[in-house]
Design goal:
Blueprint lengths: L3 E6 L5 E4 L10 H7 L13 E5 L9 H7 L9 E5 L12 E7 L6 H15 L4 E5 L3 H6 L1 E4 L2 H4 L13 E2 L6 H13 L4 E6 L1 H16 L5 E6 L17 H22 L3 E6 L6 H10 L3 E2 L2 H6 L4 H17 L5 E6 L2 H4 L1 H16 L14 H9 L2 H7 L16 H18 L9 E6 L10 H19 L5 E6 L9 E6 L4 E6 L2 E6 L9 H15 L21 H6 L5
Parallel strand pairs: 5-6, 5-8, 5-9, 9-10, 10-15, 11-13, 11-14, 12-13
Antiparallel strand pairs: 1-2, 1-7, 3-4, 4-16, 6-7, 15-16, 17-18
Helix pairs in contact: 3-17, 8-9, 9-18, 11-16, 13-14
The chain binds 1,6-di-O-phosphono-beta-D-fructofuranose.
């Protein structure tokens, strides 16, 4: 049976209601075995500890602007947790804490919540944990569930965000800040944990600033979530979910590789999630060794056009045909088109038009495009034109998950190969198959790494709130070492920020961590890509392992970035 839950639908009158939650009785053996899988904690979190302030912080860029936007929080130090004696230990007290999941699903989110819960049970007996339902809108509307051991249990070490669900709403207008503050006051919240990506953590910091400026006692702590892997810094080495999602996609890519080799008749064009950075695509390439991998950041650095990208793929296909291979696997990051300078220009013109003009069916709006952008827009297949015009997400981003770049590239490569065939420069057969691996990887069973990392992030968020900190993001480091040696702290969110132009205005943003062309993961890939293109060195890693010698293996990107060899 699913547990009964105390829920509120916005009027703050808590009622007993049956949960629509999970039935662990329907779980497979593997899922069941994960429920009681005990998670190791970093040593520092297991005994008496002290929270130690570091030096004053600055910003990732434009510190003067950030200081103006965050007058209460700018400059505050990041903190580290170090072993302490029982005398200096935080006095146990009952806390009221809220937690919210924000943005796209990422494996491990449930473990962050159970990590916070376990901290409160271990060190702050009598505390209450409120789960705001449906993302930040749940805070504004006062929709929450009181989380109990029975309610949480079926979600332990399980994927998905359905324990409390997520949403992409933003708390941004004065009215919305007021609604959030009202909820914090009504529930007498000591703290709020925002589990989200770069935009959501920016929002968490704005909320922390707003609450501080109103002298509310509610502190706000962020947690780094996103399968995209682009929320990271020196102190926050990775976002949770990336490890599991990449392992799931790598399994799927490996299967497609075996399929390609088995029949020898298809080129599989696989688009992978990651709306801005190409980390997922790069990691999957390192895990599986495909014939072609496009990395958006490289395409941008080389100022490549759509034609250049098409020619590069066609060149590999032609060379492979000479070896008798009329099959292969090509990985494409979903953010690719946003990296191609000519498309970038088109998208930024479209953004301005969509923000300020009515898009009429007669196409008069098109006159606002520059001649180059108009030419490109008219050249694109109609399906892609329509996808580029779709509504932006609440943060002003193009919804790249809805743009079928893989289909567009198949069409363009096919046309190019036809031209080469006519010129007797290509004698092979080309059949493209398109795939999009995105949502499939976001709710899988968290890998051992993500399960443990998330538990530590949640537990650390509990410590940070208990010690009265606000405007920090929970940070766990030294991740290639055994868990006992992981370091734990909180990084000042303002130290990760810069300003950016969005919806025609300057806004604070956490700088996205893109694939670095001088970084170890990209260099590793470059050192091997020519061999992968022509030989079939495919690796099919199979499903994620939860027990056995490879179960605790960390993804290649993280290891290489931490200076290890793979
Ligand atoms: P977050 O940045 O919120 O973690 O989401 C990332 C992501 O999974 C992208 O990879 C993808 O482009 C996008 O979400 C899809 O969004 P939606 O779930 O709204 O379709």
């Amino acid at each position: 049976m699913a547990a009964a839950a105390v829920v509120s639908n916005g009027n703050h009158a808590a009622v007993q209601a049956p949960s629509t939650g999970r039935f662990a009785s329907g779980y497979s053996e593997v899922q069941n075995s994960r429920l009681d899988h005990s998670l190791p904690l970093p040593s520092v979190l297991k005994s008496s500890l002290k929270v130690v302030d570091g030096p004053p912080s600055s910003a990732a860029g434009n510190p003067d602007e950030i200081a103006k936007l965050f007058p209460c929080l700018f400059g505050q130090p990041s903190v580290n947790m170090v072993p302490g004696d029982s005398a200096g230990e935080l006095a146990p007290k009952a806390l009221k804490i809220g937690v919210v999941l924000s943005g796209g699903q990422a494996p491990g989110g449930h473990n962050v919540i159970s990590g916070i819960f376990d901290y409160l049970q271990d060190r702050c007996k009598g505390s209450t944990l409120y789960g705001f339902r449906g993302g930040p809108a749940g805070i504004m509307k006062g929709k929450y569930v009181v989380l109990t051991p029975e309610y949480i249990y079926p979600y332990r070490n399980q994927g998905g965000f359905d324990m409390i669900c997520s949403g992409r709403d933003k708390i941004e207008t004065p009215e919305q800040f007021k609604q959030a503050a009202d909820t914090a006051v009504k529930l007498d919240l000591d703290g709020l944990v925002v589990i989200g990506g770069d935009d959501s953590n920016t929002n968490a910091c704005l909320l922390a600033e707003n609450f501080r400026s109103k002298n509310l006692k509610t502190r706000v702590i962020g947690c780094p979530k996103t399968i995209d892997g682009d929320l990271k810094s020196k102190e926050v080495p990775t976002s949770f979910g990336f490890d599991t999602a990449c392992k799931i996609y790598a399994e799927m890519i490996g299967n497609v590789m075996v399929d390609a080799r088995s029949t020898g008749k298809y080129y599989h064009f696989v688009r992978l999630m990651g709306r801005a950075a190409s980390h997922i695509t790069l990691e999957c390439a390192l895990q599986t060794h495909p014939n072609v991998t496009l990395i958006g950041e490289e395409v941008a650095a080389k100022k490549q056009t759509l034609k250049n990208v098409t020619d590069y793929i066609a060149d590999v296909i032609c060379k492979r045909a000479e070896f008798g291979y009329n099959y292969g696997v090509i990985l494409i990051p979903e953010g690719l088109i946003d990296f191609i300078p000519e498309v970038q220009q088109l998208i930024s013109e479209l953004n301005e038009i969509l923000a300020h003009d009515v898009v009429d069916e007669a196409g008069i709006w098109k006159k606002k495009l520059t001649p180059q952008s108009l030419e490109l827009f008219d050249f694109l297949p109609q399906a892609i034109q329509e996808q580029l015009m779709l509504e932006r997400d609440p943060h002003g981003n193009v919804q790249v998950a809805k743009i079928e770049t893989e289909k567009m590239l198949i069409q363009m490569v096919e046309t190019e190969l036809e031209v080469r065939k006519q010129a007797s420069a290509y004698k092979g057969q080309f059949k493209g198959q398109s795939h999009f691996f995105g949502y499939e990887g976001r709710c899988g069973l968290p890998s051992n790494f993500d399960a443990t990392y998330c538990n530590a992030l949640g537990y650390a968020a509990g410590v940070l709130l208990h010690s009265g900190k606000t405007g920090l993001i929970s940070s766990v480091g030294n991740l290639a070492a055994p868990v006992a040696e992981w370091t734990v702290g909180g990084t000042a969110l303002t130290s990760l920020m810069d300003v950016e132009r969005r919806h025609g205005k300057f806004k604070p943003v956490i700088k996205k961590a893109m694939v670095e062309l001088e970084g170890a993961p990209f260099k590793k890939y470059v050192s091997m890509r020519e061999e992968w293109a022509l030989k079939n060195l495919y690796i099919n890693p199979g499903p994620i392992q939860f027990v056995g010698p490879t179960a605790d293996k960390v993804n290649h990107t993280l290891l290489l970035e931490l200076g290890y060899q793979i």
